[in-house]
């Protein structure tokens, strides 16, 4: 979308449209692997708008400082995912909903102390984002030699990537971004010494008392019904499931082993409509892409199928191509057999749990969730009841009895991490156009690439000025 002259946003109470400034990134707003707009901020804003009968117009703004400047000029009603501060005149903040620590990111071939010493002594310059400058100003009173450069536009993950690629030595970013990005860039380490926590909130003009009231009510509601916690779990609940050595091993096999099977995973996607990258992550979780893998329990092959499952799916489990197809068919059978009310992505995560522990035990865990007043259609809830299947107090009350219920939880969360890595570095079989609800519009005047696999897009294509992606 070409850049255009910004105009003042009409009062939302009259236009019934909320103009929302947002920065793109894996913690806020992006296009996911399935071609849907996603992100914690996107989900929260669209729910808030829906509950208040409003349309939403998201405007992607790469420059953090301009979020506040544009609010002050009345070019939008909200700026979301920003750090609460007292420095911005004419701006007020809604309730805080997430705490973020500024952390130092450095190459893991250096020690933490040597990195800190280099920065504090002025021997090296640290790169950061505008929202962390205030903390650095305070730190400079104790260490006058401290110097930094501010990346006015872009996102924090790009700074982590630059450290990994040795383009810069050090970066200070938010803890949530650092922890997510470390999966993709295991060459970096995160300092355990961090700055003071900073609170995220939504910002608005200080003369909009009605919007402030509605936001206060909204955040009280999403806290009370646990939906904020579930959204947080959806985007962050699996970030610490794999350690850097696991990422290194996976990324190595991604280039050395995965190409042997990639076309077969894509053929399985064509039959089952399951993302080939998810199937590849499943195969890695099962066998580390070893077609000769065997377990003490008698499951074998690339997708670790039992004899009965292989026969049921009509495949030879020792043939890698057929194993992939059989595993994909079985996962599709589990996914499609769940209640129609189960929405994505929970539908897929529940199906993967069933792939690991068996459908019967998954149904038992969902029943326990119902009994405890939780949502049996939510992975965030069911993963709290699966471990109860080890306790006779619970497994004696359900149909299929005892199970090592903690294992499918770790299984799914780890698999999700491997899937995230593949999504970041491997292109989809078929590019997906993002789909919007009728009451949502996205404007991207700076032509930022919003796909979650943006590293692939940057490497293979040049931005098209008319593209909204």
TrEMBL record:
Pfam families: SBP_bac_3, SLT. Coiled coil: none annotated. Residues 17-239 form the Solute-binding protein family 3/N-terminal domain. It is a peripheral membrane protein. SUPFAM superfamilies: Lysozyme-like, Periplasmic binding protein-like II. It is found in: Cell outer membrane. Its main location: membrane. Keywords: Cell outer membrane, Membrane, Signal. Belongs to the transglycosylase Slt family. This is Membrane-bound lytic murein transglycosylase F. The gene is mltF.
